[in-house]
Structure prediction request, 206 residues.
Amino acid sequence: SEPFAVAYALDMLEHTIVVDIGAGTTDICRVYGTIPSPEDQLHLKSCGDVIDSMLIREVQRKYTGAQITKDMARRWKEQHSFTSASPPDDPIIVDFSIEGKAMSLDITECMQTACEEIIAPIVANIKQLVSESNPEYHDQFRQNIILAGGGSAIRGLGASLEELLADMGDIEVHIVEDPVQLGALGGLRLAQEVPEEYWKNLTISD
Prediction:
């Protein structure tokens, strides 16, 4: 799985939760020193595509007749995404058409709503993986949550997760610096170092 590849690249294989937010899925993996089993891996539809769709709906709800494509929404997300934990200094003003008329309008509130749409399911699934693990290692899991994938670039997401997970105890969310390169590096190392008979365990089951 991509989350395990990230943990492998970071050499963080002892009692770690990796959250990999991609375009089509968010994959969450509990890592504890060995190849994860299917029970250690969860995947959600709370992902980048969900943010894009929600952003379009929110903008069209606020501005009747707004004409927005998925590519436009994705571009705005990549440039301006944030959560309430790290709001922008200035309003997010973007250009789009309303019934063919060129407009420059504020989508700050729409962006926050869209980005925060994915948070609750991620929090619930992190809690599930921690609670179902060996209680002797709960402290380590709570303090070794890794945020990876393209969605890790959402400003404030790590802090928002820490806030919503705080009822479990002391929480630390670590954000990787280069999620694409890191996942590729981990995958390469796995291919070179892990025996072939274990590869079947590196996929995520439905």
Summary: The two ends are 13 Å apart (CA to CA).
